[in-house]
Model the fold of this input.
Amino acid sequence: MKVLEITSAQNPKLKEVVALLEKSKERRSQGLFVVEGLREVEACVRNGYAVKSVFFNSQIAAAEDIGKMFPEGADTTLFSLSAAAYSKIAYRESTEGVVAVVEQKKLQLKDIKFGRQWNSPLVLVVESVEKPGNLGALLRTADACGIDAVLVCDPLTDLYNPNLIRSSLGGIFTNQVVACSNEEALEWLRANKINIFTAQLQDSEWYYDTDMVSPTAIVMGTESTGLTDFWREASNAKIKIPMLGELDSLNVSVSAAVLCYEAVRQRNL
Done:
């Protein structure tokens, strides 16, 4: 595994990393994205992502330790950076001094495999989520609950947005995540005979009165407008969470966690 040294913060390689961090267009055109943090890079490697290069602060991390994360013969170049050079591409202070450039994966609906944790499929569907932090939190919940797949329908945020990766703590790598249209998701769910439960306040039953042991897709909308009529009309059942205070809305990631863990509870009985 080659180790090259970079001491100048003006090095062209660092400018390429900054462009990937800041511009979704650059990420799309190159098919690359940036991961910051030792835990996140390890999650990439474990889940079969191709890591093209690793930039590390030579005052914090050692090439020998980083090399241990990779299988023998991995085609990855390591760049040893001075503290000044590393600060050019680092966002967080406590990231073990590691930033990686990684190839994107284009998972499709047909690639999804069931049985990650449950005998009966459990899928989380999120429609038009705008905030990378919310989607990142949803992915952490999906990982914790053993969700088979997360379908991001009509996405309004780049799946490889650095804020999403940071907030997911690597959940973007540990889950089967597919970006698709509403229509594609619905066709796939019906083809796999998965019940569609839409989270909404209107015309709904309590979520804990709904059978989530059978093949289940929990469908979440945006916080501002909720689900579109497309999913409301397609649902097999509409479910709601009790709201006992004066407010009538929870953060979408919190709501998803409540519903997903109900599925876990039922399946563990």
